[in-house]
Amino acid sequence: MNYCEYVDIKAEINIYKGQVNNENFRHQMQLLKEIESFNNTFNPKFSKNEKKLENK
Q1: For residue 55, what pLDDT band results from cuts at 50, 70 and 90?
Q2: Where are the domains of the chain?
Q3: What does the buried/exposed string (b/e) look like for 4-41 if buried means 16 or more CB atoms within 10 Å of the residue's CB?
Q4: Against a cut of 0.90, is the pTM above it?
């Protein structure tokens, strides 16, 4: 394997890692949204508006 092939393979690995991280991030954001909507439904004190009021 020459240096150019090595660099190409390394770049492909990094691109793949980036895609995996991006998918994980999207999945985590989706879970957060679901948890937030669940909290808002069953426990209104978790709503964002009240958090803002508490912070003031």
Answers
A1: low
A2: 21-56
A3: eeeeeeeeeeeeeeeeeeeeeeeeeeeeeeeeeeeeee
A4: no
